[in-house]
Predict the structure.
Amino acid sequence: MRIAAAGLSDTGLKRERNEDYLAMDNSAKLYIVADGMGGHLAGEVASKVAVQIIQKNVNDWINKNSPVTEIFDFPDMTLSQRGNYLSSSIKLANRVIYEMSQEYTEYKGMGTTIVILAIMPSTIIAANVGDSRIYLIRGDSMEPLSKEHSMVAEQLEMGLISEEEAKISPLRHILTRNLGSSDSVDADVFELEHVDNDRFLLCTDGLTDLVSDNEILNIIKNGNDPEHICQQLISEANKRGGNDNITVSLICVNKESDEKRGIIKKIHTFFKNKK
Amino acid sequence: MARVILVFNKKVIKEYPFSKDSMTIGRDEANEIVIDNLAVSGHHARIDKTGDIYILTDLQSTNGTFANDKKITSYKLQHKDKITIGKHLLFFALSKQEQAKATDEELDKTMILDTAQQKELLEKQAEKKAKDVSAQQGKIGVVSFIDGSGEGEIQLKKKLTKIGKAETSEIRLGGLFMPPTAATISRRPNGYAITATTGKTKVKVNDKAIKESYYLKDFDTIEIGSYKFQFYSHDIEDEK
């Protein structure tokens, strides 16, 4: 399995600070994006703290092969062990940020969204809280691997408003879940088997508020490599105003077929033994 | 100072700065905010300012006054609250200084809705429409062996269900040519999808071999090797 990945985080054109945070851990094959919120410096702190807590704890638990009953909070029986590592690390990060926001006046009201992608030999796990997104691009189509925790998305799902109404709704930046606003949170986690040439896009709403899903898909299909695609996506969002911070990360998974690998191995062993 | 923004059909009609200690709303011309519409009473509602607090009061109007879709008689307004009078929407906005006092955030930045508010709002909205989405979300996928290839039905409880010969498979199938994993079914935001694990075993849905993944619909038949299943989703009982 080969992974080609890139990620970029941009302040955009209108904001003074970049409260998004991006981490690409190529050795653990863990990719995390967060969109922080809160007055003064709180947003930057929230997104960075969340990502670092998740990265540290997931790596620790992997190294120790920790049982899911011993990590943080109750395990989710619908998930694999790794899925539980992601889910628990999110709950832990939430608790830390919540307590920071309660403890210090300069952190009052701080919070962040989170999206995580973990890649394993045959499967991937996608986890999210908030309105930052993960998409799977497979073949010619794109589908979400995250659930949007916003008022407008929930109204849309309930059939109360149309897509057009959702785009201009004044409620569209109101989240129903984030990290930091309450002492506990549930992440949405999805697991699936990856196939050759699967591409995964992690992004904050700074991109999706300005560029439609179809336009994103076209940029990905026509791009040269992950780095180039990330640059194109950010550039497009900025061309359209760059109202918010924009963070994107694109990860491509390529699998050599087992048969091919098997034959190569056999030839290799044959020549090795001949020596 | 605070403002009341009058919106109709998604267009901002007028902005009213809160310059006095109270503002009245109604069809009558004597009101500060005049809404000329039959669904609006002559004297429909008022907003009073006491210190930093703004109170919205319904003046026994015919059709009622709603704050964030909940019918109110008297209600303490928060920044970004939505007031509904007839078909008109009025958004209440505090000034930056007032917001800072209340430690709220700017109009176009992200805000979190607390659980109680959110629940109330969604419940009210759910009553308005017939669609019962909560039933959809409470569903679980099930595969049932058919054609005598096996017995019983298996609930797809996990986010990822592995099907094959491996001991760790959620659905274990035997047979000489059965690989450790022949296929997987993942529960995704858009539903259950089956993926054929690349290899020799063909995975067919409704007699057609699938390429990569396929979203399952109720009563689809799945064929893996000599095994045949039918997929469907049904409601799960409330587990509390």
